[in-house]
């Protein structure tokens, strides 16, 4: 063991670690792991790590080793209205009275305290905790409506404040290729920035072809598939274009308001010249 390479002992680290704590089998208590699954379907940017922490608080503590920023999501049982969301910034963690917040014997605050003791300098200092008040924790139950609604709010906050800064920048104006065999091809940067879940909807609207990102495969739609080692993607759109097939390179523009890549196709084909 004395010959173990020093690199093996370095903390693995990541820019953002998102940990969902709770028991999937007990209704609203599983909101943390469910949230992690939704984030995974949306697409994980480079530098981020998602962890289903379950109910193993010590495992959560060691997952934090070397992370630059940490987000922990868990259920709460404070007596507040179901679906109430608490955001606990890292600066308040030491002072906030957290006794009795939820049902685990080894809670997220225990995990943080243990991590500070066990990890020393490798323990993150930028930690944010989101807690969602439960409606019920019956064995085998689904997430309740108020907890599901609160979870969506937390997902949006995590995406906006923690994950979006890690996603690659992309130009608003892009070029795409419609192939003779019915595929639409996107470059790697556009796919990673605009369509991170790899799930899309393709529609014709007037004289435009729209490619719309979906939240994940469970949303239905079409799937972008990797076609090059660099990360370029392609999606089969021949069914959408069966009455007006396209072939060649076209210019498109990202529409923030509609959250869609809009590709004008009036006049038929724009051949690659």
Walk me through what this model shows.
The chain is an alpha+beta fold and 273 residues long. The protein has 2 domains: 11-166, 3-Layer(aba) Sandwich (Rossmann fold), CATH 3.40.50; 173-264, no CATH class. It contains 5 helices and 14 strands. The protein has helices at residues 31-42, 57-63, 108-119, 145-163, 188-194; strands spanning 14-21, 48-54, 67-76, 85-88, 126-133, 173-178, 183-186, 199-205, 208-213, 222-223, 225-226, 233-236, 248-255, 260-264. The chain has a 9-stranded antiparallel beta sheet with strand order 10-8-9-14-13-6-7-12-11. It has a 5-stranded mixed beta sheet with strand order 2-1-3-5-4, sandwiched between helices. A hairpin with a 4-residue loop joins strand 13 (248-255) and strand 14. Helix 1 crosses helix 4. The longest helix has 19 residues, at 145-163. The protein is elongated. Residues 4-11, 95-104 and 269-273 have low confidence and may be disordered.
Oligomer designation: single chain
Percent of residues in beta strands?
25-35%
Discrete helix count: 5
Number of domains: 2
Roughly how many Å is the radius of gyration?
Answer: 22 Å
Query: Which class of secondary structure composition applies to the elements?
Result: alpha+beta
Uncertain spans, ≥5 residues at pLDDT below 50? 4-11, 95-104, 269-273
Q: Can you give the mean pLDDT?
A: 82
Q: How far do the termini sit from each other?
A: 62 Å
Keywords: Aspartyl protease, Hydrolase, Protease
GO molecular function: aspartic-type endopeptidase activity; enzyme activator activity
InterPro entries: Pept_HybD-like_dom_sf, Peptidase_A31
Protein name: Peptidase M52
């Amino acid at each position: 063991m004395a010959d173990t390479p020093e690199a093996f002992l370095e903390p693995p680290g990541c820019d953002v670690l998102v940990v969902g704590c709770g028991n999937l089998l007990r209704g609203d208590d599983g909101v943390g792991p469910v949230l992690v699954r939704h984030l995974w379907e949306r697409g994980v940017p480079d530098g981020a790590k998602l962890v289903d922490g379950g109910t193993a608080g010590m495992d959560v503590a060691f997952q934090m080793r070397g992370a630059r920023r940490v987000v922990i999501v868990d259920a709460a049982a404070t007596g507040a209205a179901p679906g109430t969301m608490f955001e606990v910034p890292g600066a308040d963690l030491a002072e906030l009275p957290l006794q009795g917040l939820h049902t685990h014997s080894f809670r997220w605050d225990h995990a943080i305290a243990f991590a500070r003791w066990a990890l020393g300098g490798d323990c993150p200092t930028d930690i944010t905790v989101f807690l969602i008040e439960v409606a019920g924790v019956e064995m085998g139950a689904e997430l309740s409506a108020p907890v599901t609604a609160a979870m969506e709010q937390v997902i949006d906050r995590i995406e906006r404040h923690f994950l979006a800064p890690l996603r690659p920048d992309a130009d608003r104006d892009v070029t795409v290729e419609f192939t003779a065999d019915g595929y639409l091809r996107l470059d790697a940067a556009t796919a990673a920035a605009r369509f991170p879940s790899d799930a899309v909807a393709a529609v014709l609207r007037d004289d435009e072809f729209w490619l719309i990102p979906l939240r994940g495969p469970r949303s239905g739609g079409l799937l972008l598939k990797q076609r090059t080692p660099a990360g370029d993607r392609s999606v089969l759109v021949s069914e959408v274009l069966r009455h007006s097939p396209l072939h060649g390179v076209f210019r498109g523009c990202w529409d923030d308001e509609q959250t869609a890549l809009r590709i004008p196709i009036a006049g038929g084909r724009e051949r690659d010249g």
